[in-house]
Amino acid sequence: MATVTIRNVWKYYGQTPAVKDLNVTCPDGSFVSILGPSGCGKSSTMRMIAGLEHISAGDILFDSQRINDLAPKDRDVAMVFENYALYPHKTVFENIANPLRLRGTSDATIKERVTGAARLLEIAHLLERRPHELSGGQKQRVAIGRAIVREPKLFLFDEPIAHLDAKLRAHMRGEIKHLQRNLGTTMIYVTHDQLEALSMADFIAVMHDGELQQWGTPSEIFNKPVNAWVAGFVGEPAMNFLTCDLKRRGDDVVLSHRNFDIPLLPGQVRQLNGAAQAGVARMGVRPDAMTVSMTRPSEAAIEGEIFVNELLGGDMLVEVQLADSRIRVKTTPEFEGKPGETCYLTVNRDKWHVFDAGDGHAYF
Amino acid sequence: MASRDVVHYNTPLQRVLSVLSVVFVIFYLIWTLLPFVIMFVSSFKDLLEAFKLPAVGDWAGVGVFFEFTPTLKHYQTLFSENNFSRYMLNSLIAAGGSAVISVIFGSLAAYSLSRVDFRGKSDLFFWIISTRMAPVVAVMVPLFAIFRSLDLVGTLPGLILAYTTFNLPFAIWILKGFFDNVPYGIEEAQMVDGATRFQAFRSILPLVAPGIGAFIVLCILFAWNDFLFAAIIGSGGAKTLPVATRELVQPQNIQWGAIMAAGVVTTAPMMLLGLVIRKYLVTGLTMGAVKE
What we know:
A: CATH 2.40.50.140, five-stranded antiparallel sheet, B: two-stranded antiparallel ribbon, 2 strands, disordered C terminus
């Protein structure tokens, strides 16, 4: 159990910075996910916490102890690797027992702890097998077993379920979250899958190009992205972006596009700074913050042409062609429009976002 | 998964080739095995019987080779008069000692070269293997001078050192390939689990065991069969089997029977070793090179 503080941390590989001035505090007992695409520096960050990489600059603290110069074995962390990294020549029992053996734990305690962990992970019947006799999901459980067997200060999970098939992945998401809640140990979980981060974590750190983009709860990240990059990365299907003009019209500020002119809500106008009240901006709206219909519901509706319909089981995704871009809208499978027909989009203005056209930061 | 069988079609050319390959294998077997057979059989023959040969072209007379009364007297001569048990022990100590030392230092060096990046690494690696490029004869005179000034000539430690000089680069070269094939993640997992760097290194040794096994065999073979080093560096106090055998050839008396017996005594242990670890040796030599 520990609070992990990452303070002004940089990581350089040669001249290339992989992590740039990272500042994050993971509260004691929380489940923190570091989310980002490959190459964003999330794995480097985790490996610096584990002690497998040197910290180029800055400090990492467990509670108040600076751990920069401690060897991995002295940090009391447990890690689950993306490729599991099991010991191929050892049985499952010995794999899980390894951290305890290295600490000189007595045989009786080892047996008790290993069987306990194995029962928790439902692999008690596999203890005499070797890793090459196991399926991917079983290997992954063994790797988790090796991590939880010795009650460390901190869990580090590096994309542990990325290589499992979709069904098993969904199952393991719940299991890992449940496990972390039960053990109450601080966990840092690296993933490139925004769904994993949103569904499991207490807090998410979104990283891009080595920089922390946003720190927040899953709902903050999803509903109040700080910039267009975060908004586009989080959420599936992804957010739609349209380049629009902001125009003053009387007391209103209108978002103007070749297909539509829609006024902002009064509260949103106040969130624009003065300079931005006229000029180019990017409008972002999630596919589920719009409705699509075949008849014009109001004058403000956006007219477009159906490009293609995708049935996603319980939902239907309609791709609508506007003058210069396409927009995806989520609707029900009962939607009757056919490709090529004219349709009308209504935007839920409470849930749209406007981003600066230059640096992409969010106004709201 | 696709089948890994090579598909054969029975064309006339194929048939001719398959017959030819059988003929080739038969000749090859005769070529390689006959010397051993003659050596083995002759070592149990009295000298007079050993030199009984059929006339040229008399194929029916081949049976002459096998008409003899077996005798163990050559072996008795070797061990009672010629002190061969001593030389055998010398051979064992020299070959085994150099194998053990080479494997210890070789695996440490190979591990470092495989895992750690430092400036000049590729140059260092090339230099290590380049020490094997000069023929042994070329460096023998300076080596002898060095060994003599260190009082190592004619001693077993001297001989072990000489073999290690040539086995160590070989060990590093072979074992580096094996360490390269062990995923680094396994050691990282060990270190996070609480192992020191050295413990992590030790924990992956079982994974390179085929390489170590293969290397030990090649190293022992090299030292056991070596004549040049043994004759020059080991001469006198550290006489090994090949040198002792050579000394059975005296100007006025070539002891053919004893030489044949010495040949059997020298060859047999290596053949046994080869048989015991044959499987190991083959997987070991290919595993380093071929990635699964």
